Amino acid sequence: MTSLAIVRTVSDLRRAVAEYRAAGRTIGMVPTMGALHEGHVSLVKGALDRGDVPVASIFVNPTQFGPNEDFSAYPRGEADDFAKLEAAHCRIVFAPSVEEMYPGPQLTTVTVGGSITEGLCGPFRPGHFQGVATVVCKLLMMATPDRGYFGEKDYQQLQVLKRMARDLNLPVEIVGMPTIREPDGLAMSSRNRYLSAEERQRALAMYRALVTAANAVRDGRTACATAEAEATQSLLKAGFDKVEYFSVVDANTLAPLAKVTGPARIAAAARLGRTRLIDNIAV
Amino acid sequence: MTSLAIVRTVSDLRRAVAEYRAAGRTIGMVPTMGALHEGHVSLVKGALDRGDVPVASIFVNPTQFGPNEDFSAYPRGEADDFAKLEAAHCRIVFAPSVEEMYPGPQLTTVTVGGSITEGLCGPFRPGHFQGVATVVCKLLMMATPDRGYFGEKDYQQLQVLKRMARDLNLPVEIVGMPTIREPDGLAMSSRNRYLSAEERQRALAMYRALVTAANAVRDGRTACATAEAEATQSLLKAGFDKVEYFSVVDANTLAPLAKVTGPARIAAAARLGRTRLIDNIAV
């Protein structure tokens, strides 16, 4: 089997995975919502680099979108996605319908509490991380991979999923992969497609603000609150319409920091016209 | 390997299970809180009957007990439990410490909502089914069995776990096994050990009330509310101190029924002195 197998049902997915398992192969899962870009491709490559058979999924999960969010507008383009996966040497893609994923009411939810979900996107997207944790738990249980690959671009999501896997003793390793950026620094995101040419230029300010803030707070030089306020001002000046948060947090617990004394992350979310952009950077 | 292997850590459990897997065997898990009786033994037998290697666990899970419940008083007797499991031809018993099960704060919870948890024990034991679903999910992910065996004695718990496995697509079949009763009809329960000789006699009234009610409501002959009220009165007259509920419910959704027209279950919980007893019966 050298070409991409496209499966639509859980039973076909399990059958396709079992064939590779029977041949002694390990499985690396790459859950996505489609509208694939080089960030997603790097996750497939990450699986190949570790010797895993890459299994991608494409599912725009309704339960992780709020009522006023962009579920219906979210970019979809299956043929293009399949071509990118095939070119990346992905072996299986699971592209289920909503009915296949949720054949009846989903009464069971997986919730990660504590500081990991309390801050950053948590208050702005109520129910989002519960939707993510639940659907990723389902996908992992469907494909039973050895490893699941997720981008650091969605850093809070990555920490939620790592904690879920650890707390529920899932027999899966959650692997975080570096954010892939455009040459000018903008983090790749399916939502970048929403941006007008002018907004695309303004969007750059987010990465620049993150780099500036990371240099400012490193080794406790500047208080986090000072750097956060300056970054927020710089984003507004650059043409962002609203800054939801710009926060220096502990790299593991995501608890807000006053001073940087250990591993930290700076994460930001801001609105540019109708588009909500997020990004983050290690300190 | 013909004797019982006693394992205390997740890694030892996984290693012991992997040996049987490598030999082509399927695994049947029997999660328990110890204080084993013939009901538990029947679950081990159920696994053997289906050709599974029986793997039991003994863990008195603190997160499924309320603050005023009997966690510290719950009967514990490991040596006796191990002897019963060995005699029943169980192959592995996982008996972890609280620290092994919960090495850090358990921030992730599994919740089953809807009618399955709204009624019966739900309102009387807030947090109980979340504690049960979360710890059983953990245990199933630790041992990765083909099947998990649970008694119908805890009928609501069984429905919660079936729903959890279905909703989260766990690659595990949840098998319900018939309640094992004493010769006089009392459902076997570890909590029966709490009963004085006199209470033990009075306890019989619960099974009798269930049988009487099942005959009354069958085929819609008597309205459920009438049978429920009569049963409640009979339990109080027999010396029960408080009847928490005595309810005719849909066998699958556990939603209360006014008339029996399809598969139904009658479930009851009542207090006898300091002991809380539950039982249920098919209609």
TrEMBL record, chains A, B:
<keyword id="KW-0566">Pantothenate biosynthesis</keyword>
<keyword id="KW-0067">ATP-binding</keyword>
<keyword id="KW-0963">Cytoplasm</keyword>
<comment type="function">
    <text>Catalyzes the condensation of pantoate with beta-alanine in an ATP-dependent reaction via a pantoyl-adenylate intermediate.</text>
</comment>
<dbReference type="InterPro" id="IPR042176">
    <property type="entry name" value="Pantoate_ligase_C"/>
</dbReference>
<feature type="binding site">
    <location>
        <begin position="151"/>
        <end position="154"/>
    </location>
    <ligand>
        <name>ATP</name>
    </ligand>
</feature>
<keyword id="KW-0547">Nucleotide-binding</keyword>
<comment type="similarity">
    <text>Belongs to the pantothenate synthetase family.</text>
</comment>
<protein>
    <recommendedName>
        <fullName>Pantothenate synthetase</fullName>
        <ecNumber>6.3.2.1</ecNumber>
    </recommendedName>
</protein>
<dbReference type="InterPro" id="IPR003721">
    <property type="entry name" value="Pantoate_ligase"/>
</dbReference>
<feature type="binding site">
    <location>
        <position position="64"/>
    </location>
    <ligand>
        <name>(R)-pantoate</name>
    </ligand>
</feature>
<feature type="binding site">
    <location>
        <position position="180"/>
    </location>
    <ligand>
        <name>ATP</name>
    </ligand>
</feature>
<feature type="binding site">
    <location>
        <position position="157"/>
    </location>
    <ligand>
        <name>(R)-pantoate</name>
    </ligand>
</feature>
<dbReference type="GO" id="GO:0005829">
    <property type="term" value="C:cytosol"/>
</dbReference>
<feature type="binding site">
    <location>
        <begin position="33"/>
        <end position="40"/>
    </location>
    <ligand>
        <name>ATP</name>
    </ligand>
</feature>
<comment type="subunit">
    <text>Homodimer.</text>
</comment>
<dbReference type="GO" id="GO:0015940">
    <property type="term" value="P:pantothenate biosynthetic process"/>
</dbReference>
<dbReference type="GO" id="GO:0004592">
    <property type="term" value="F:pantoate-beta-alanine ligase activity"/>
</dbReference>
<keyword id="KW-0436">Ligase</keyword>
<feature type="active site" description="Proton donor">
    <location>
        <position position="40"/>
    </location>
</feature>
<comment type="pathway">
    <text>Cofactor biosynthesis; (R)-pantothenate biosynthesis; (R)-pantothenate from (R)-pantoate and beta-alanine: step 1/1.</text>
</comment>
<feature type="binding site">
    <location>
        <begin position="188"/>
        <end position="191"/>
    </location>
    <ligand>
        <name>ATP</name>
    </ligand>
</feature>
<dbReference type="Pfam" id="PF02569">
    <property type="entry name" value="Pantoate_ligase"/>
</dbReference>
<feature type="binding site">
    <location>
        <position position="64"/>
    </location>
    <ligand>
        <name>beta-alanine</name>
    </ligand>
</feature>
<dbReference type="GO" id="GO:0005524">
    <property type="term" value="F:ATP binding"/>
</dbReference>
<dbReference type="InterPro" id="IPR014729">
    <property type="entry name" value="Rossmann-like_a/b/a_fold"/>
</dbReference>
